[in-house]
Amino acid sequence: MSEHQESAGRPEGIGMRTMEIVVALVLLGLGLLVIYDSRRLGAGWSDNGPEAGYFPFYVGLLMSLASVVTLVQTLFGRTGKAEAQQIFVEWKPLRQVLSVLVPALVYVAGIQAIGIYVSSAIYIAGFMMWLGRYTWLRSIVVGVAVSAAAFMTFEVWFQVPLYKGIFNPLFFLGY
Questions:
Q1: Count of alpha carbons within 13 Å of 64, Cβ hemisphere only?
Q2: From CA 36, how far away is CA 113, in angstroms rounded?
Q3: What angle do CA 41, 45, 46 make, to 5 degrees?
Q4: Is residue 1 part of a domain?
């Protein structure tokens, strides 16, 4: 068996067919969302020309149609056995990508809650400890130092306030 075929009855990764279905469904959902919102804005033609949602409506329609065609071809099209068993991504590289992607998503959510400065300090320190294998003390010092430098640069020197989050943990500084 080749490295891309099943071993012990389990796939070695996510299959190409599975990813084609997932991408077609996600793009179909986005296309339908564009159609829905375009109709809310007005997707017709008025006395003054096209309404605000006219062009987005047709872009969403084309996107949805292309997604349906892709989905039908993937589900009902004829593919050879070798094509059907192709691996899109193996589990080990996927875990490596997710080890960066998931913390980045948590970081973005953290920005909404506690702001960019505190979230950045936690994000930097966390990555240094987890992936860099630095000591917790060094990681925290570097994370706080980088965030403090960004704070001084933007808030104090340039006087450009950055988002501090819903809970604003830096309120005690007067910012």
A1: 14
A2: 30
A3: 90
A4: no
Same domain, 114 and 144: yes
Write the pLDDT tens digit of every residue in 153-167: 999 999 999 999 999
3-state secondary structure at position 116: helix
Comparing C-alpha atoms, which of 62, 7, 52 is closest to residue 31?
A: 62
Q: What is the token pair recorded at 122?
A: 């936690």
Q: Report whether 60 contacts 34 (CB < 8 A).
A: yes
What 3-state DSSP class applies to 137? helix
Q: How far apart are CA 126 and CA 143, in angstroms?
A: 8
**Beta-carbon contacts of residue 111 (< 8 Å; ≥ 6 apart):** 119, 163, 165
Is residue 6 in a domain?
A: no
Asked, for residue 41, whether it belongs to a domain, the answer is: yes
Residue 129: name the closest of 140, 144, 121 by CA: 140
What confidence tens digit (pLDDT) does each residue in 23-53 have? Answer: 999 999 999 999 999 999 999 999 899 999 9
- Cα separation, 113 vs 127, in Å, equals 20
Q: Which of 54, 164, 74 is nearest to 119 (CA)?
A: 164
Give how many domains the chain has, as a whole number: 2
Cross-strand partners of 49: 46
- Tell me, yes or no, whether 111 and 146 share the same domain: yes
| Closest by CA position to 58, among listed 28, 34, 23, 41 | 34
